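Researcher: Let's do a round of design. I'm pasting the structure tokens now; please hold your answer until I've finished.
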């Protein structure tokens, strides 16, 4: 019941991340019937194009061996090895095309469906693979029934088609037993070709259906619930609560660094209580004043407090304080439109610090 509810809740298409993760784990749609079809096709090519010539060459070698045995000396072990090496090369030349065809077509069927990748998880031992309960569940599950249907089609349907297609050749094969022995092989080859054609057509149909079924089943297995999509979005974009907490911590750290810079200020401009902007101007450092700290309400009061502790001049200019607070960021040079107003305040600061001349 829990599995059915879980399947019913997976109503959403899989995301790109879910599909990409499945590919990285080796979970890709692979049709086994397509590999069977390509193997059968390779054997048919071998039977038609390579086997007759190979059998002929091997037959000539054996005929030469039996007709003229005197040319093969078997007096020593070296002679025996030489004979078997020669026969091995001939048999290898006969079987090599079959091996190459099976390897190329088998690898091609996999590459067409999905590029091969090395996935360690696919070869890692897992207890579920040898579990009787899991095996029983896989056998009698939906995919297991589909595999059973494909096997039944290959055994029963193909056998029935083959019986109807080859029933006339049965009597021809019996008649060939009383004819020239050389014709038996020819007729037998014709029958085998017919059988392979029937198997090829059946496996081609089965492979076409299986390719679509495999991809459909794989896609259905990757479907997600709405909650899974939300969780994945949180993982990829970040939890909003955590991100808000991180932004809050970053603001607190920036505020502490800013407050620590207030003692370096040359003057402070206030609203007088709602806004405060601390400026630093040293001719040797910058060409224009720099905002080292600014704040509103409680932060503004803290800036005023620190400025008072360090004997930094405080000027009340509400319009200037509000404008600079809104337009100038911390650690930035003030714009040119504030030059005149700030220059007057800086002049007053430096004038107050200049030594007074005595009048004689």
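Researcher: That's everything. Go ahead.
Model: Designed sequence:
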């Amino acid at each position: 019941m829990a599995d059915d509810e879980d399947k019913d809740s997976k109503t959403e298409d899989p995301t790109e991340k879910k599909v990409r993760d499945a590919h990285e784990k080796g979970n890709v749609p692979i049709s086994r019937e397509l590999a069977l079809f390509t193997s059968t096709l390779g054997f048919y090519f071998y039977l038609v194009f390579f086997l007759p010539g190979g059998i002929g060459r091997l037959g000539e070698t054996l005929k030469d061996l039996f007709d003229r045995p005197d040319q093969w000396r078997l007096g020593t072990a070296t002679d025996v090895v030489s004979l078997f090496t020669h026969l091995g090369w001939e048999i290898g030349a006969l079987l090599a095309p079959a091996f190459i065809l099976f390897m190329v077509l088998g690898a091609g069927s996999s590459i067409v469906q999905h590029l091969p990748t090395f996935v360690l998880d696919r070869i890692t031992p897992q207890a579920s693979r040898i579990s009787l309960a899991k095996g029983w569940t896989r056998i009698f599950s939906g995919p297991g029934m589909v595999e059973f249907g494909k096997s039944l089609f290959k055994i029963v349907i193909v056998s029935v088609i083959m019986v109807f297609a080859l029933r006339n050749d049965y009597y021809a094969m019996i008649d060939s037993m009383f004819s020239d022995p050389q014709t038996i092989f020819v007729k037998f080859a014709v029958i085998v070709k017919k059988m392979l054609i029937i198997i090829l057509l059946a496996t081609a149909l089965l492979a076409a259906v299986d390719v679509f079924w495999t991809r459909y089943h794989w896609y259905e297995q990757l479907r997600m619930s709405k909650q899974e999509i939300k969780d994945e979005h949180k993982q990829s974009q970040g939890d909003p609560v955590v991100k808000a907490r991180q932004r809050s911590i970053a603001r607190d750290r920036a505020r502490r660094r800013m407050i620590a810079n207030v003692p370096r200020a040359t003057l402070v401009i206030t609203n007088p209580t709602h806004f405060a902007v601390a400026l630093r101007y040293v001719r040797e450092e910058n060409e224009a004043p720099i905002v080292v700290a600014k704040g509103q309400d409680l932060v503004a009061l803290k800036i005023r407090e620190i400025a008072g502790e360090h004997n930094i001049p405080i000027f009340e200019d509400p319009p200037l304080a509000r404008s600079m607070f809104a337009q100038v960021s911390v650690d930035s040079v003030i714009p040119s439109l504030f030059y005149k107003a700030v220059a007057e305040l800086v002049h007053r600061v430096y004038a107050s610090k200049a030594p007074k001349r005595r009048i004689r």
